[in-house]
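Slide 14.
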Amino acid sequence: MFFIDMKFRWMLLLICVGLMAGCATQPSSPMRADALHLPSPQAFRTWTPEQQLTWLAVPFPGKNPTQYQLAKRQGREGIQADAHSAVSMLRQSVHVPADQLGALKFSWFVPELIAGADMGVREADDSPVRLVLAFEGDRSKFSARNAMLNELVRTLTHEEMPYATLMYVWCNQRPVESVIVNPRTDRIQKIVVESGPHQLQRWRNYERDIRTDFEKAFGEAPGPLVAIGLMTDSDNTRTHTRAWYGNVQLLQSVTKP
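Slide 15: predicted structure.
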């Protein structure tokens, strides 16, 4: 029998919710990818010329939810995440065509790592910070296992699972730029952008080339970007973790070093 645990099942479903909403609210003309700024100081919202978008806090049924709220850290406005043996996601629907993908700029502040967490092990897959990107693509390329996962998601949600999900993460021990394959499906890949304790207790700022990172993780060109998520979780290790997320910005070009 094909089995997946409840946390992974609901992670898939929540990413699918982002995909479904993105398809339902897609504007008639493509969204300007250089106009997306998250969050504003007033609410979990972002402004674009075409539409007003909203962060949605989505719980995992049967799990304690991570608590998200606007709060300052070292004078910077951001989203504070508190997870007490908890997991949930903030999700935002977008639609950025593949040919408009450029850079992703984001920042976060992590006071301490989660003892015992290991994102390559199913039973220890917790992280103080994750930035999640969901993409569309050709599902006829799925392996038999991923096709079965997709069928399960379709049965539960009446929608397809994302073709690919790319996460940027802070890992306890793996080297920066490592790619962690999700232990349940290779359609979720995690790129380590920070590792170990050396940069704790300070704001860390990143600019990533979405196309380059996607090709590195999946070995092919990306399709349209359809959802962005923030996720702090500690339910597997049954610990408390706290972190702050700063502004998230999509750019149409990559800054050259």
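Speaker note: The radius of gyration is 17 Å.
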